[in-house]
Amino acid sequence: MSSILSRLDPRRVPWGAAGHALRSRVLRTKPVESMLEGTGTAGGQGTRLAKVLTTLDLISLGVGSCVGTGMYVVSGLVAKEMAGPGVIVSFIIAAVASILSGVCYAEFGVRVPKTTGSAYTYSYVTVGEFVAFFIGWNLILEYLIGTAAGASALSSMFDSLANHTISRWMINSVGTLNGLGKGEESYPDLLALVIAIIVTIIVAMGVKNSVGLNNVLNVINLAVWVFIMIAGLFFIKSDNWSEGQFLPFGWPGVLKGAATCFYAFIGFDIIATTGEEAKSPNTSIPYAITASLVACLTAYVSVSIILTLMVPYDAIDTESPLMEMFVARGFYAAKFIVAIGSVAGLTVSLLGSLFPMPRVIYAMAGDGLLFRFLSHVSSYTETPVVACIVSGFLAALLSLLVSLRDLIEMMSIGTLLAYTLVSVCVLLLRYQPESDIDGFVKFLSEEHTKKKEGILADCEKEACSPGSEGEEFTGPPTNTCGAKNLPSLGDNEMLIGKSDKSTYNVNHPNYGTVDMTSGIEADESENIYLIKLKKLIGPRYYTMRIHLGLPGKMDRPTVATGHTVTTCVLLLFVLMFIFCSFIIFGSDYIYEQSWWAILLVVLMILLIVVLVFVILQQPENPKKLPYMAPCLPFVPAFAMLVNIYLMLKLSTVTWIRFAVWCFVGLLIYFGYGMWNSTLEISAREEALHQSTYQRYDVDVDPFSVDDGFSYATEGESYPDWGPPEDKGFSYQQMAGAKESHRTSSRSKSKGRHKPSSEALIANDELDYSPE
């Protein structure tokens, strides 16, 4: 007993080593090599997700996940209770804020294409394991609550069309219960349970089936939107926008409505979860995110215009605004047409919430952060069936027990936090020195070389003599016909030559390193915003840049500048959190114009501006990507501010629920995920191999001259370390295995015997090959 207590003595615990081990575990990143084709992502599962989604499919998924509740519910709610006809301006402001997060998502997506898991996978490759788990865990919350809320909303829609006979039958036959909400009694929504189960089966049947249904429902929704636009033109009244009626609640009401309208744009991140199933993710994902946000904005603004021109804002029905606006004008048949669109819109929103959730679970389980059986992919449907069933069951259970109002309140906090962390990560990565992207480019070059090892490699062996290696040739640098004595156009020329201007292929070795349109480094090709700024300021641009301390074109980030940006971003996050908290909870003091409140607000604004300016003074990473967020650091910083403000606008009960969810996630990570992740298992295996070989290296040489060994004299090579054949033991095989392990793991352990000169030459060519 005393020995146990002595071991638990805090003075004997190696806190420094323990802290270093914990820090290395939570900050370790996933190798980008495992993200690409042919490497497998499901923890050894042989079946991969089907790569069948086009750019149009991604746009359809993004629009469908957003436009249902936004068009049929949010527009009427904001118009009546918050902004009046000014809901149009509210939607525009919310769209701008959403696009700020969208461009950060798009850049994060093209940094690590051909992946599934959305922001979880991106942050795992670039930031660290703990941040990745936290983002993925909150994305699961978002999709789980969104699916349950969609099923409950669809159930309420059917109940409304049936004149509430379904809810009355439920209350009389089943009874009521106290849900997981604020204690109010509600009936168990069995219809929502059935709807969630049906949609789960559809999603589990295959991505093509679920996307096909999504496209059909979007076509129906589009047709109903066109009908609303045309039919509504016959009933509009300009008096509803008369003087004083457009902004009845003033600009504070417009801004309050914008905070609510922002939730109508949540859902575009579903596009980022389909990287492994998209045909060309490095171009489809950023385009689809932008196009879906623009399409949603068009639908919301046009519907809001028709709604507020047909019905006075104070007479709008908040439950079913688009159906009741035609009833108010005597067009009863239009109610049922709009009802069809409402059902289609809510169904596609439900599908958009359930579709990405299994894929995030699949990605996390494949990495070992969640239980690995969840990463099983069916060979028949090519979908993560187990993850679909588990997530659908949990969503159905929530829709059965929790009221719709509570689900809507819980839906947004996980999404907003994920958006905030994505903006933080983009801001950090753009100012860091060369990092994992170098390994990404090198791996792509190696993969490109491996693909050429077939017929092309044979032709090169025939064309080049063994001694020349094709490197001493000084003739023309092209060989398109495979003529002898001419080296083929290989990776050496491709890395320094110009590439095809029309493509931005991720498989190209120059991806992320060279400007694909000019063949020069990306930083030397200035962006359009800098060119416009130079034209606007003129010759004073360079003088102003020197006085402000802005980086030059040839400046590159270092470790010191990277640390500076990291410190500034963390301080910026904390300061924005304090600023938004004071703006929300101390608004009374600000409206009363208390001198200390005004001084505190001005001081915090100045500190935020200073931190952003310090970040602006640091040099950016010159890597060129197919899509990059513009106007750094202003766009990610403003996206952080908006998302933090909207998070703090949520209720206290929602934050308590969110804290409970995060606590459960921390238990799972520190109890299971951190010790069973793929990176942890690989590190243990590598450490075991290294310890084995090191122990072998320090052993006494079991072979002596008496056993048949003879050391070569000076000037001789070492063609063979093996003993005489009659001994039956080959030391060369063991040394070969040892050398192969050294090459793969890049360990620096040294053996007792010096390798031969031929081996040194081979290793030198392997390590310093430009490929």
UniProtKB/TrEMBL annotation:
Its main location: membrane. Keywords: Membrane, Transmembrane, Transmembrane helix. The chain crosses the membrane at residues 58-79, 85-108, 190-207, 219-237, 249-272, 284-311, 331-355, 385-404, 410-429, 564-587, 593-615, 627-648, 654-675. Residues 714-771 are annotated as: Disordered. It is found in: Membrane. GO terms for molecular function: transmembrane transporter activity. Residues 743-754 have a biased composition (Basic residues). GO terms for cellular component: membrane. Residues 627-677 form the Cationic amino acid transporter C-terminal domain. It comes from the Eukaryota. It is a multi-pass membrane protein. PANTHER family: CATIONIC AMINO ACID TRANSPORTER-RELATED (PTHR43243:SF17), INNER MEMBRANE TRANSPORTER YGJI-RELATED (PTHR43243). This is Solute carrier family 7 member 14. It comes from Gallus gallus (Chicken).
